[in-house]
């Protein structure tokens, strides 16, 4: 049995897979070190201060969970993870690297997946991110830390990912993007999004697609070369947190996910219509908070952290809980 945790980390990404093998994958990180301002806001909420702001944020079906981000390092400790077998950086944007050093300082990280996408070091002056995270990423990426760097691309078959024990499928992780051409094109224009990893996790309950920040060129390639791995998937982690970003979203006509998970962003930037127009179910971190997916022979059980949201779901069961989340449905 395996469990996937899709964490509420604000305008960023972080997913955790607890594989049936006992190994743990972390895909990207954000809010790995909550800022002093956010920590203060959390303390104020615990004292009942600032609830008018939270109530305003919860208007119109918006439950305001973006105001309650999760620190992935603390979360990993809470679910008793002691070692990260693989850290998969989909691409080097800081909203996928925020707290990377904290993960490496807190846990033994055995393997680091690097697609080869590159980006000029950003400026950190006056911004929300820490330069030490970028510097540590470069050291790990360049082999200067005691972490094995893995540089496989689309279609690769290799040990522990999709070969070997258990049952010769390893941890059932397939890379469907990028290929070398996508990486080269992304690096040529200085935009790593189409050099982003797109992964398929073949869980016991069905396939889960982690889309990184992939754009249309990536999906043209995936549907041409790896359609069988993504079509009819059970769950899609939406590309670019669900932001519209000028995408056509034609790939949704092939994937037809039973459920799509969106990160946090302002509603006007989200690509809701592409899903709504196709009658596809979606849940946002802003509604649900953290989302836990538990795969088994009967499909994938879905759990949501936010009780107020969970109570609105037809399948809600108050006393069926996992990792602080409430059961809401099976897909």
Describe the protein.
The protein is an alpha/beta fold and 331 residues long. The protein has a single domain (2-330), classed as Ribonuclease Z/Hydroxyacylglutathione hydrolase-like (Metallo-beta-lactamase, Chain A, 4-Layer Sandwich), CATH 3.60.15. Helices cover 25% and strands 24% of the residues. It has twelve helices and 16 strands. A ten-stranded mixed β-sheet has the order 6-5-4-3-2-1-13-14-16-15. It has a six-stranded mixed β-sheet with strand order 7-8-9-10-11-12. Strand 2 (15-18) and strand 3 form a beta hairpin. The radius of gyration is 19 Å and the shape is globular. Residues 49-60 have low confidence and may be disordered.
Short description:
The chain is built from twelve helices and 16 strands.
Based on DSSP secondary structure assignment, what is the total number of beta strands?
16
Work out the strand percent: 15-25%
Rounded to an integer, what's the Rg over CA atoms? 19 Å
Low-pLDDT sequence parts: 49-60
Figure out the total of helices. 12
Cα end-to-end separation: 16 Å
Structural class given helices, strands, pairing? alpha/beta
Quaternary state, please? single chain
Order of strands, main sheet, comes to 6-5-4-3-2-1-13-14-16-15
Q: Largest beta sheet, briefly?
A: 10 strands, mixed
Q: Mind telling me which CATH architecture this is?
A: 4-Layer Sandwich
The average pLDDT score comes to 91
By CATH's scheme, which homologous superfamily applies? Ribonuclease Z/Hydroxyacylglutathione hydrolase-like
Structural shape: globular
Helix proportion of residues, in percent? 25-40%
> What is the N-to-C order of secondary-structure elements (H for helix, E for strand)?
EEEHHHEHEHEEHEEHHEHEHEHEEHEE
Q: How many distinct folded domains?
A: 1
CATH topology: Metallo-beta-lactamase, Chain A
